[in-house]
Amino acid sequence: RKTHIFRAVLSHSRKGYTEAVTRLTTESLISSLENAFWRLGGVPKTVVFDNAKSAVLKADWYDPELHPKIIDFCKHYGFTLLPTRPATPRHKGKVERGVAYAQNAIRGKEFETLSQQNEFLDHWERTMADTRIHGTTKQQVGEAFEKHERGQLGPLPSERFPFYHEGQRRVSRDGHIAV
Questions:
Q1: Is the pLDDT of residue 95 over 80?
Q2: pLDDT tens per residue, range 17-33
Q3: Residue 66, CB half-sphere, CA atoms under 13 Å: how many?
Q4: What is the phi-psi region of residue 106: left when phi exceeds 0, alpha when psi lies from -120 to 50, beta otherwise?
Q5: Three-state DSSP class for 159?
């Protein structure tokens, strides 16, 4: 089964979080971003995100419309989600190279389950990505994160985001709704 890569990258240290998902939905985005926050041990003040349909209902240069679940998620974790401006790829440069870097890690490998792939990516993140000397910052990624960024992250809430699923229902002639 084909998987997609979710990658979050902190801007200063280039510390990342990588997760494989089977579908690019709002629910998978929220789950992956939440997992990233818990793995990093805190919440950044601002998250810059691509204009993917899973997060942004209407991309706009000045006033983008976010998905209602994403707005609730942002309120729960206390951060601001800023979609990149449409048709400006230079605004998301740090993460674009990170996705290609993570895809190279799994290229040519086969996994029995999605959890095996995510375990491999977690191990790769800790042993390879965090120990490398980043080309731009000229610092070891894991050390730079611990030294400069970990303390700048906001606190995690006491509970994870209360997940809910939405669906359309029809009211039958007798006034009943099937849930």
A1: no
A2: 999 999 989 999 999 99
A3: 19
A4: alpha
A5: coil
